[in-house]
Amino acid sequence: MSEATDLPTLWRNQPPEPALPIPTMRERAGALHSDAKRLAISGYVWAAFFLATFGWNALHARNAMECAGALVCMFGAIFLAVTWRRFGTKEMPHTLPVLQFLKTYREELQRQQHMLKTAILPSTLPLVLGITLATAGHLAARHALHAASLAVLACFLALILAFGWIMNRLHCQQLQFRIDEVETALRDAASSIGSLP
Question: Do 22 and 191 touch, CB atoms closer than 8 A?
């Protein structure tokens, strides 16, 4: 058997990574709480920025399309803040027993990961729709719409969505690494407790 065919077998048979110390896991749980809190606060900051920006745009709109786009963006800003508020998490008590702490930490990591997969991009869609309408109305109020102008707008919005999707995937992968660490620590803790007389 060649060396190339042996590599997958060697990879599968390698010993598992050692579990991280519980104090390190507790520190990471505290960091998760801080990260989730910052993410929720950033949702409020972006919502306030969009409300102020598009509120001003709605008051100075040149036509109905531009005004409608600004109003949709204002609704999208509120929707964004409400959605990202769900990322906030209570600080995890460090006095929990080891197994209970690890299970609680794993559940919170999985909740955060589920939120990222199901809520982040949908929470920005009303803003994307509103920006599209407002920009198209803005262009129409100043000169006739051209295919080139709409193509530039479409590319700009596609870049925004692509950047959000990439950052979202990277964050999900980081959370998956943490979930795997907790699973390893849970197996190690459970086996240690099971081996006690």
Answer: no
Nearby residues of 92 by Cβ (< 8 Å), 6 or more positions away: 26, 29, 30, 32, 33, 101, 104, 105, 108
Distance in angstroms (rounded) separating the CA atoms of residues 136 and 163:
22
Structure tokens at 196: 């006690």
In whole angstroms, give the CA distance from residue 11 to residue 25: 26
Distance CA 37, CA 87 (A): 7
**By residue range, what is the domain housing residue 31?**
22-191
> What is the amino acid identity at position 127?
L
Residue 38 lies in a domain: yes
- What would the pLDDT profile of 104-142 be if each residue is shown by its tens digit? 888 888 888 888 888 777 788 888 888 888 887 877 776
Tell whether 145 is covered by a domain: yes
- Total number of domains constituting the chain: 1
d(CA 3, CA 8): 10
Q: Is residue 16 part of a domain?
A: no
Residue 2 lies in a domain: no
Question: What does the alpha-carbon distance between residue 30 and residue 92 come to, in Å, rounded to a whole number?
Answer: 7
Residue 39 in tokens: 């993410």
Arithmetic mean of pLDDT, 64-85: 86
